[in-house]
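Hey, I'm writing a tutorial for new members on how sequence and structure tokens pair up, and I'd like a real worked example in the thread rather than a made-up one. If someone can provide the structure for the chain below, I'll link this post from the tutorial.
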Amino acid sequence: MWNLRGPHTIAPNLDKDYIEDFNLLFGVSWFVYSKLIDFILSDGHENFFTLKIHHGGSFTKFPGRNYVEGRLSFFDFVDTGLFSVHDLNDMIHEIGYSKDDTMYYHYRIPNLDLDFVLKALGNDQDVISMAQYIPQNRVINVYVEPGSRRLHTYFMSPSKVVIK
């Protein structure tokens, strides 16, 4: 099950060199921490990723699109095999939005700018499309828009998108 990261916690990093540095800085047992990482990376657990959710802001206009005046929330240990838009709705509710609000979700293709790489995240097909980027990018950026605005990404989705 996913976990909302507190505002002052360190992001999980699956690089063992980082874990050694972490051990020196924070006094965490290398043995315990390495066993945890080995467990996460063992067969069946390589699907974990982090959702970096941008919310409470708005997109600037094209070209040079940015998401401004927003906040960030991180959900760690999201399992690709179990994740759905319903989970994203629950995450949005957990960070303070009403379940009655209509929200539009977009994910960003990693390492590209916002002008051309936002994709709709509104149904299972969109989640499957997003999942192709997870093995190379353990952090996926998701942008939230309230129901009063919509970017063109929902009109380009491979299937009809309706979020209620």
